[in-house]
Automatic annotation (TrEMBL):
Any Pfam family matching the protein: APH
InterPro entries in alphabetical order: AGP_Transferase (IPR051678), Aminoglycoside_PTrfase (IPR002575), Kinase-like_dom_sf (IPR011009)
Originating organism: Bifiguratus adelaidae
Gene3D superfamilies per record: 3.90.1200.10, Phosphorylase Kinase, domain 1
Domain of life: Eukaryota
The protein's name: Aminoglycoside phosphotransferase domain-containing protein
PANTHER family: AMINOGLYCOSIDE PHOSPHOTRANSFERASE DOMAIN-CONTAINING PROTEIN (PTHR21310:SF13), AMINOGLYCOSIDE PHOSPHOTRANSFERASE-RELATED-RELATED (PTHR21310)
Domain Aminoglycoside phosphotransferase: 79-303
């Protein structure tokens, strides 16, 4: 469907462990990015919800807190339950409106299960004192909490459904890079500013002298991201590391130019809808059935390469046991075989033999605000 109709073992990839857009603390109760909402009025939220559903909300309990949201369970008088996502101050209006638009677009154009948006307010100038989204509560638990307890047959069942989800995302093509919004005037969806952590964390949200999207090409997107990070380093970064950081960013800019001007670079690009953090913590399951994909706050249209990855939870890390590693390899083989039978291009992109790829530059830019030394190591590997 088009928009207009509505890991290898190379050294540098070993250093890029987390997914693009990913919030490393997205499911923790004590995120390093979390801040208190001084003006949050839970009683006002309870009143708003009671009016919305025409019955008393008899209990509000906090379920979780991620990098940019507090999550509350809403219990109504008739026993029904809903979820309230309260946005923490980060990137006002745009992040909430993009998340809502994306979930509605997914609901209208795919069979991917997502929570149903019931009501939202994208301004903090309300009685609640914060931006918020009220949505349906989905059945099930997080896949990350039960994956290792599943039988092989159940894991394969989940992966088959995951493949279907990814291929539906692949079918949603867009003309530009950026996040999805709904234009009330024209009653249509459109691509606008890119919403992701690397663009609004800390003082990055107030940097004005940089284009935030939409972008017509990967080159434009990455060069703007590099420009943004360079401004941040100069104006807000550590003075002792400034020269070192700017040297790395300049090197990344040259790498992007070299890659996009090479003869092997495609003359036209495909941008598809990417979740941004399609990890097992954002997939809800009941038994071996995927009941919802949640947390679409940093999703958007990005190059096809960014969508084409093995399931993130099948990657080994420092906590992976030898038994789990064997299981991960087995499931990766299953995923590869199943995906090759349905979409050979997907696996071709994953295993493309290239020592330098724009996706790796992208990951490096994400790491720029998280681990400067890591960026330096990756740049060194990319250049040699």
């Amino acid at each position: 469907m088009s928009f207009v109709d509505t890991p290898t073992d190379s050294e540098y990839e070993d250093r890029l462990e987390y997914p693009f857009h990913s919030d490393p603390y997205g499911s923790d109760n004590d995120s390093v990015y979390s801040v208190e909402l001084e003006d949050l009025d839970i009683d006002a939220l309870q009143d708003e919800v009671s009016v919305l559903f025409g019955q008393p909300c008899i209990d509000i309990s906090k379920l979780n807190e991620g990098g940019f949201h507090k999550i509350y369970n809403l219990l109504m008088m008739d026993g029904s339950e809903y979820i309230a996502r309260i946005a923490l101050p980060s990137y006002e209006r745009y992040k909430t409106e993009s998340e809502v638009a994306t979930m509605k677009y997914i609901e209208q154009h795919t069979t991917i299960p997502v929570p149903k948006i019931i009501h939202y307010d994208s301004t903090s100038h309300n009685s609640v004192g914060a931006e918020y989204i009220i949505m349906s509560k989905v059945q099930g638990v997080r896949l990350c909490d039960v994956w290792n307890k599943m039988s092989t047959a159940q894991q394969k069942d989940v992966l088959s459904q995951y493949i279907d989800i990814v291929l539906q995302l692949k079918s949603l093509e867009f003309p530009q890079i950026g996040s999805l919004y709904y234009n009330e005037r024209y009653k249509s969806f459109e691509i606008g500013e890119a919403i992701e952590m690397s663009w609004f964390l800390d003082e990055r949200a107030i940097i004005s002298d940089v284009h935030r999207g939409p972008f017509n090409s990967t080159y434009d997107y990455l060069q703007s991201a590099i420009q943004k990070e360079s401004i941040y380093v100069k104006d807000y970064g550590s003075k002792s590391d400034q020269q070192h950081d700017l040297h790395d960013l300049d090197a990344l800019s040259r790498i992007v130019t070299s890659l996009t001007q090479s003869q092997s670079y495609p003359s036209s690009e495909t941008f598809v809808l990417c979740h941004g953090d399609l990890h097992s913590s954002n997939i809800m399951v009941h038994g071996s059935t995927i009941t919802a994909v949640i947390d679409w706050e940093c999703s958007g249209a990005y190059p096809l390469d960014n969508l084409c990855n093995y399931p993130i939870w099948l990657n080994d890390d420092a906590k992976t046991t030898s038994e789990q590693s064997i299981s991960n390899n087995h499931m990766r083989d299953f995923f590869k075989a199943e995906m090759e039978s349905r979409c050979p291009e997907f696996i071709d992109i994953i295993e493309r033999d290239s020592s330098l790829r724009l996706k790796d530059v992208y990951h490096c830019l994400f790491a720029a605000f998280w681990d400067r030394e890591r960026v330096h190591d990756v740049v060194r590997c990319l250049l040699h």
